[in-house]
Amino acid sequence: MNCRIGGLSYLNTRPLVYGLEDRITPGEPAQMADLIRRGELDAAIVPVAEVLREDRYDLVDDVAIAARGPVFSVFLRHAGPVEQVRRVQLDPASRTSVWLLRVLLKSRYGIEPEFAATGGDAELMIGDRAIEYRLRNGNEPLLDLGAAWWEWTGLPFVFAVWAVQRSACGFPLQLLREAKASGLAHLEEIAQRLGPGTATFRLEYLSRYVHYDLGAAEKAGLRKFQELCAGLGLIKECRPLRFLA
Questions:
Q1: What are the CA-CA distances from residue 13 to residues 16, 27, 66, 159, 205 (Å)?
Q2: What is the rounded distance in angstroms from the CA atom of residue 203 to the CA atom of residue 121?
Q3: pLDDT of amino acid 1
Q4: Are 145 and 97 in contact (CB under 8 A)?
Q5: Nearest to 146 by CA among 201, 242, 69, 56
Q6: What is the DSSP letter of 232?
Q7: In this structure, what are the phi and psi dihedrals at residue 167, rounded to the nearest 5 degrees?
Q8: Residues 136-172 pLDDT 10s
Q9: I want to staple 229 with a disulfide (CB 3.0 to 4.6 A). Which of 17, 79, 133, 234 is the partner?
Q10: Cα(9)–Cα(58) distance, rounded to whole angstroms?
Q11: Cβ neighbour number for residue 21 with a 10 Å cutoff
Q12: pTM assigned to the model
């Protein structure tokens, strides 16, 4: 089978595409969601917002980009108290993080600020750009969305998953599982490659802040997020998700 595979062009994705780098179409989260929805990819690492919104994918079991506490690379930078934020500048590459931020601000902090492409008294930042910013501005007030979710719910947060088109019959799932296993076994090598921060930081980030399992706790966090998104009208319904073993 000639597989069309998409992966994210962020540091946290590297362990999931280890050995597949020459076979994947790289891009930002929103781009991957658009490509797989248009049928241009058979499988891709996509933001969970895409699989919650579109009932056309199966999820590869036990593989995810998740956080069990602070995630470091997804945060809201703000000048004053979070409760006083009035306008948030969004990152166009993000969808799941935008939904997570809306859920947290509404349900935990009781506010509904304006969201815009430019300007604001706060800014949502994700990915490698966020890491670089945080390393330069370590003392600036930041709301780490992974930490905020964990403290509020006690559950991991799943940011992205491997999604497979249901029409892609016979897709070799083992290819993706082997890539994860190899990537986790070669974190030190991956950390030596170019990326945000030092090699020491990159290894700490990949081994401490990001978790790559999609187990029972992660699925519970995913269901909780699904329910909250439905409550805010971000998705129409809470339908069962299908996992490929």
A1: 6, 11, 11, 11, 12
A2: 33
A3: 54
A4: yes
A5: 69
A6: T
A7: -80, -10
A8: 998 888 999 999 999 999 999 999 999 999 877 778 8
A9: 234
A10: 22
A11: 11
A12: 0.95
Tokens of 142: 């930041």
Distance CA 188, CA 201 (A): 11
Span 13-31, pLDDT tens digits: 999 999 999 999 998 888 9
Report the amino acid identity of residue 121: D
DSSP letter (8 states) at residue 184: H
pLDDT in tens, 71-108: 999 999 998 899 999 999 998 888 899 999 999 999 99
Indicate if the alpha-carbon torsion angle 59, 63, 67, 68 is positive or negative. positive
CATH architecture of 74-153: 3-Layer(aba) Sandwich (3.40)
Homologous superfamily, domain 5-67+156-219: Periplasmic binding protein-like II (3.40.190.10)
| 3-class secondary-structure state, position 105 | helix
Give residues with Cβ within 8 angstroms of 13, minimum separation 6: 7, 45, 65, 160
CB atoms closer than 10 angstroms to residue 210: 23
114's tokens: 């304006």
Q: Encoding tokens for residue 26?
A: 């790289």
Residue 161's identity, in one-letter code, is V
- Taken in order 137, 138, 141, 146, is the CA torsion positive or negative? positive
Query: Quick one: tokens of 171?
Result: 């897709």
CA distance 4 to 163: 12
Cα–Cα dist 174/216, whole Å: 21
Domain boundaries, the chain: 5-67+156-219, 74-153
Evaluate whether 172 touches 1 at the Cβ level (below 8 Å).
Answer: yes
Buried b (16+ CB within 10 A) or exposed e, 133-166: bbeeeeeeebbbbbbbbbeebebbbbbbbbbbbe
